[in-house]
Amino acid sequence: MSWLTDIINYILPPRCLKCGKPLVTNTGLCEECFSEINFITSPYCYKCGHPLETDSFSNAKMLCGRCARRHNHLFRLSRSAFAYDEASKNLITNFKFCDKTENARFLAQTMFVAGKDIFENGIDMIIPIPLHFRRLVVRRYNQSALLAHELSKLSNCQAECTCVIKHRHTRPQVELSGLARVRNVKGAFLVKYPERVKNKRILLVDDVVTTGSTLRECALVLKKAGAKSVDTLTVARVI
């Protein structure tokens, strides 16, 4: 079907997901917009993936101060593709709130690259952060589930979108900060089918991580349900 794709691209050329400029090939972003994205690259904390301010190019598994002080880590590894800032904001907000679901493919590709060591260490299942049904009805799709399905295609790992549910409606995390975010999602998630996650290595997927409260709460119920390990992978993180 490549000839048909070529014809379609000639009549309706693919456009940059960020600025709308026509593209010769469907790479997602034009060169200019791609260069503006602040991708998270080494050096970063081996555990949480937060960028580190160091000139060292050692291959050692460096830790940030917070992870170095922590003895019990809820997550095995956490990774994000790029920084959530003015250069990347519209890519994510358009995808999340404005029906630009075509962004999912490109965003998942960047996540797949960022999470290379997670996939190399091995996972058994990809689980997106669920939406409460009231929010799902309004938005009509779960952006994290779309990312999970695209990652499933890239990694040949099963995406499971039904075994974890959000059974309590909460305020949008963007409206809150600090401890209010933690309280907001406390007890909001439920593992509906614990037998599916028992002894499994789980990859939790979301769009943006700010304080990590949502990912931690979801990971906590997965670990209580018997998950062997939990990694997290997001499109972007607030730095």
What is the topology?
Elements (H helix, E strand, L loop, with lengths): L1 H10 L19 H6 L28 H5 L8 E6 L5 H9 L5 H12 L1 H6 L3 E4 L4 H7 L3 H13 L8 E3 L12 H7 L3 E3 L2 H4 L3 E9 L3 H12 L4 E9 L2
Helix pairs in contact: 5-8
Brief synopsis:
The chain is an alpha/beta fold and 239 residues long. The chain is 38% helix and 14% strand.
Description:
This protein has 239 residues and is of the alpha/beta class. It folds into 2 domains: 1-36, no CATH class; 37-237, 3-Layer(aba) Sandwich (Rossmann fold). The protein has helices at residues 2-11, 31-36, 65-69, 89-97, 103-114, 116-121, 133-139, 143-155, 179-185, 194-197, 213-224; strands spanning 78-83, 125-128, 164-166, 189-191, 201-209, 229-237. A 4-stranded parallel sheet has the order 1-6-5-2, sandwiched between helices. Strands 3-4 form a two-stranded antiparallel ribbon. The relative contact order is 0.15.
**What's the average pLDDT?**
92
How many domains? 2
What portion of the residues fall into strands of 2 or more residues? 5-15%
Q: What is the element string, with H for helices and E for strands?
A: HHHEHHHEHHEHEHEHE
Radius of gyration: 18 Å
User: Major beta sheet, specifics?
Assistant: 4 strands, parallel
CATH architecture annotation name of the largest domain: 3-Layer(aba) Sandwich
From the N-terminal CA to the C-terminal CA, the straight-line distance is 43 Å
pLDDT below 50 for ≥5 consecutive residues: which ranges? none
